[in-house]
Amino acid sequence: MFSRRCELQQLLSVLPERLERSVQNHPQLEEIVEIVLDLGRRPIARFPSGDWSMSQEPVTIADLEDAICMVGDFVDDNRAGIDRTLHRISAIRNRGGRIVGLTCRVGRAVTGSAEMARDLVSSGASLLLMGPPGVGKTTAIREVARMLADDYDRRVVIVDTSNEIAGDGDIPHPGIGRARRMQVTNVGLQHKIMIEAVENHMPETIVIDEIGTELEAAAAVTIAQRGVQLVATAHGTSVENLIKNPSLEILVGGIQSVTLGDDEARRRGVQKSVLERKGPPAFSTAIEMASRTEWRIHHSLTATIDALLAGRSPSIEIRNMKDKEGTAPEELPVLNQIENEEKDVFKKLQDNGSESKLFSLYPYQISEEFLKQAIEVLELEETIGVASDIGAADAVLTLRSKLRENVWVRNIAKFRQLPVFAIKANTLAQMIRATRAVLEMEMLRGTSSSTRKSKVEDEIDALEEARLAIEQIVIAKGQAVELLPRSAGITALQIRLAESYQLASETSGIEPKVRLRILPLLQQGSRQSSSINNTKEESSQGRVQGGTSVSKLPLLPTDFLED
After folding, report:
1. Co-location of 471 and 417 in the same domain
2. 380 — pLDDT class (breaks 50, 70, 90)
3. CATH number, residue 497
4. Containing domain of residue 245, as a range?
5. Torsion region of 178: left, alpha or beta (phi above 0 gives left; psi -120 to 50 gives alpha)
6. Of 113, 235, 288, 478, whose Cβ has the fewest other Cβ atoms within 10 Å?
7. In this structure, what are the phi and psi dihedrals at residue 455, rounded to the nearest 5 degrees?
8. How many domains does the chain fold into?
9. Helix, strand, coil percent content, the chain, rounded in steps of 5
10. What pLDDT, in 10s, does the model give residues 322-345?
11. 395 and 412 inside one domain
12. Residue 348 falls inside a structural domain
């Protein structure tokens, strides 16, 4: 086992003797971040608590030359290292090429630093880590590489541009475990080494630090298309930065301007010219590292990009972890997150003086857009809300497949005693079924299960009939459609669904058989009932077409998995 204290002493030994003695006496020596030596200025040691002057005497040329002699060669990126350590020494040169400043960054391998993303790592997802300098991106990606190689027995190859992940020298640092490392002789050749790693060494996972150029982004896309798991960091603090970066936008699939037709623009409620993705992103999941202890997870990078381009707020999950004096956390990150969130919620309730009446549903890896549409169709905006984080939710809604493969959501639901509703498919019909089940679980407790099941199935069948008629006939062919006769309550649900598509409708008949006719265009006011008779032939044709489509649909399952 390598000693963190011993490695730190190797970096301090690079300093002139007077500076080494000075910093050795600092009470927070173990937490030191970096040391800055600039010619003619006082030497500075940086700690999490702030900068500290190591000496009142300015740095001299002799001090810099002594330090340079103790480290390896500086290559074209002006970086050097110390053999078999993770420390990084970066040089500042004058116009003549002479070194006039050094930044000595302390490198540490922290076991457990990527524990908040263990469930994502184990699932085989391609991960993109972003964040400002100093939040621990390289430390996290190093731990992810070790975790994949040692804990999950994957063939991992690290493309180590500046020897920051696996350390300086020919023998990699023990912090990467059994992962292999390929060094990059020239920064401009990183994209070629990335492709070479895939072609020559048959990896299951490629780990890359600092994707910053268009060529490197294109190489990452090529690797992703070959079915290799990618774990990388990129310049930028958020996913939105990637969209605005012309060199890196290919990582999120590329952005293009699309002109929509009048009907499609009206249906979406947007302008005719919109931005859309060209293709799928190179990464399935993105992590925004706000700090060393707070990560923001975008479980579906595709959904995040689409939401941002559409002007909506993406669905993210915030994970927090308590940092105990730089050591690996002993508590589960999720417990720390919930503990903080519950305090915030309690404080909000005290400030407001009363508890919110909304029942909050947390959508975990399902379409938030479908869920909101289901709430709107059922007119439950005043009853149900969509929670942006699980800490403020009253229940969890997720896919059954996701619930089985991910223990994280089960653990957090158990900890907070939240009911978990699992649906089989990520569709609007299933969302409506789940929304009604959540609210009617108590109201219908006195009725038999068969009665409850029959009622829900009738509503879902009617809404699915309306949806197919709208999308396949009214919108696609511009024809009006008359639906099968239903009760007034169910017809009201179909009307609201049509309105969500910006379409008009009219009704005829009386209870218990009310007929609904959906019109191609949204019109103000209502038409006279005689208009149905004038277009009886057209309505009959539309009804036959719509009925044929619906009659072949099997009834959707009504059972929910609840923990």
Report:
1. no
2. confident
3. 3.30.1370
4. 115-330
5. alpha
6. 478
7. -65, -45
8. 4
9. 40, 20, 35
10. 543 333 333 333 333 333 333 343
11. yes
12. yes
